[in-house]
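Subject: Predicted fold for NAD(P)-binding domain-containing protein, 210 residues

User T.R. writes:
Posting the sequence so we have a shared reference for the thread.
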Amino acid sequence: MKITVIGAGNMGSAFVKQLTRAGHQVSVTARDAAKAEQVAAANPGARAVRAAGAAEGADAVVLATGYAEAAAALRGAGDLAGKVVIDITNPLTADYMGLTLGHGTSAAEEIAKAVPGAELVKAFNTVFAQVLAEGADFGNGRKADVFVASDSERAKQTAGAIAESIGFHVVDAGPLKNARYLEPVAGLNIYLGYGAGQGTSIAPVWIRKA
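User M.O. replies:
I've generated the structure tokens; pasting them so everyone works from the same file.
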């Protein structure tokens, strides 16, 4: 699959690492072009591209920026009409211990409003960058979960296929408005992982039937 990753921070670089290993054709872009070049160079097969028009030709776009930069980054990436956009953002406060949105809307819904032609799917927002970089398999048959929420079935299927290709277990989390639940889950993960000192392996693995 041809995938463009927007963002070259911890999550963006982890995506590039795992997606190239899984055999996808990966492009990466960022506000800091030099950082995108470094990430691409560290992952043979990936390529750094300019931010303008970065989404052209991609089967899916992974939005790995901060929430505040998300809409602008997508608008600059080219024509997103009919394009699957995987939103991994969380609307975090400056200290990472709270959310700036909730209850009546979500980061995902606000981003969807900003790029109405895209097929937006919330996914990976509950996964720590360290877990993504190191791999989803915790051993003993335990895999980290990726929740996918979207009003587009095609977007869910695409995000799910990408998640499974890099080793995650996929959970259908319903329509896009359910991002209002997923973003607080991410906030809880961050508190448990960092605020309570339990580490990034606290990433969700839900109890399910074998």
